[in-house]
Amino acid sequence: MKPKSAIAKGKILENYLVDLIKQVYPEAHRQPGSGSGKHRGDVVFGNWTVQCKNTKNFNFKEAVAEVKKDAMGYRKELIVWHKQNTPLDDSVAIVNINDFMDLLKSEKNNQSSDEILDKYSIKSNLEKGIFFLKKVVKNL
């Protein structure tokens, strides 16, 4: 397989995942040059590091090591695997057990994911607003 085709296959899954996540996290996006920059991983949203694997055979051990390295010990870890020649809807999400328990606890405490997401979204929008207001003040 040529590297370009492997990259193209990865982007298909990443774009599909971003479209799904944007329904809940509007600021979700693919990470250009994944593995470099401030955020690592293939997809960025909230406090999650996501590693996408669009392969025929899945190397679990390698994927876990990669997402752990990218999460750098302070972000939540998620692996999404899509087996080639199957619908994208059949992709599988693999989450760290501690992160899964946090999700269960928030659900049990009747803390809806919408409430959590709204707080993050408001904070993100305020930070962007402050950034642009500083630019305006500087230009005045």
Task: Note the main attributes of this structure.
50% helix; alpha+beta; 140 residues
Give your account of this protein's structure.
By secondary structure, the chain is of the alpha+beta class. The chain has 4 helices and 5 strands, in the order αβββαββαα. Strands 1-2-3-4-5 form a 5-stranded mixed sheet. The longest helix has 27 residues, at 113-139.
Share of helix, binned: 40-55%
Dominant shape: globular
Mean pLDDT: 80
**Biggest sheet details:** 5 strands, mixed
Summarize the SSE layout with pairings.
Blueprint: H1 3-21, E1 29-30, E2 43-45, E3 48-55, H2 60-71, E4 76-83, E5 92-95, H3 97-108, H4 113-139
Parallel strand pairs: 3-4
Antiparallel strand pairs: 1-2, 2-3, 4-5
Briefly, what is this?
The chain has 140 residues and is of the alpha+beta class.
